[in-house]
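queue> holo job accepted (flavin-adenine dinucleotide)
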Amino acid sequence: MGLVYDVAIIGGGVIGGSIAFQLAKRGKKVIVLEKGRLAEQASGAAAGMLAAQGELEKETGPLFKLAVQSRAMFPHLAEELRELSGIDISLINRGMLKIATSQEQVHELKEVMTCQLQAGQEAEWLTGEQVRAREPGLSEVILGAMYIPNDGQVLAPELSLAFLKSAAVLGAELREYTEVKSLLVERGEVKGVVTHGETIRSEQVVVATGAWSGSWLGQGNEPATVYPVKGECLSVLTTRPLLRTTVFSHGCYLVPKRGGRLVIGATMKEHTYDRKVSIEGISTLMERAKRLLPAIAEAEFEKAWAGTRPQTRDGLPILGEHPEWKGVYLAAGHYRNGILLSPVTGVVIADLMEGKDVGGIKPFQAARGLTV
Ligand SMILES: Cc1cc2nc3c(=O)[nH]c(=O)nc-3n(C[C@H](O)[C@H](O)[C@H](O)COP(=O)(O)OP(=O)(O)OC[C@H]3O[C@@H](n4cnc5c(N)ncnc54)[C@H](O)[C@@H]3O)c2cc1C
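queue> job finished
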């Protein structure tokens, strides 16, 4: 018999990486199995915004609480990961401007702001003039913005690799080009996983397969069904930074990275695993970006890419033990916020696997909505 691991993690994205890191820190013998290359799917494509308030505007429920908790973990995590892996995740805390370009959006955003202030979060309303005083490159189409000081950003591929490398430094084994075909079930119990050519034995299994998680969830768990949503992005380079703060609107966001790089995202197309970059997608993003930040027209095009977000029917991620298989844990469906939610996901799943009582995660169980 080959090696026996404490935990086999299926999927080498930011979620599998964060869980591997937490488990390795707790002394577990972990193996991460990735069908392609590490962090090359959604986690390598993300813009890296930590938009707890910017993205989850209509929420102050359990997902919002989880997101705020996860956002607060980044400053310490950035240091810890740099120390272990040598990778700088480039945490930038210069806030986010959630902009309005119509009176209707002004009204909506002010309501969102009131709600978030009541939930104990920080936010400030800026008029169009105040927005341009802060960011002189932004155009007159912006009528006002909710300024969110605590929504920062990181480099998503670096974060994913930093989790994985730190886990490896702490003893985890990472295997690329290793697709898991099924669970290893013996006498009704899960004993590991089966790849193309190998049986890997482990005490517990984690499914962190992003947009490919649908077939792992078990029958009849409709609200938690995972499906793919394609997103395209591009980046440009400028000699002089055009923005300091992230600018977020529904059809387009602009995320200023270090070194005069600006990431522009993102398109949305449901139910496709296609990762081709389309002229339609990129030209739409470019037009929207120019409308908000006219000087971007002079910037140098760097590159464009696409990734596959893991969405669920009810929009909540899936976190918890498999409804049918004991010892198998699910961590998937993080949709547009997997980078933001990765630190807390790692801790929650590691705690559950150790049998700890984790409060507030019932809404994220795979079998939600089915029990009375
Ligand atoms: C364009 C775009 C922009 C985004 N921007 C942001 C953002 O600004 N902020 C934010 O928080 N989030 C953002 N996201 C969302 C974020 O990227 C995802 O929520 C997150 O990366 C999901 O991580 P994951 O590890 O679950 O999935 P993935 O990164 O897709 O990883 C899953 C891995 O599992 C592997 N796998 C699947 N099946 C198997 C198998 N059978 N055996 C072995 N391996 C398998 C896959 O190859 C893959 O590498 C964005 C996403 C996109 C596409």
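queue> The domain at 96-145+227-308 is CATH 3.30.9.10 (D-Amino Acid Oxidase; Chain A, domain 2).
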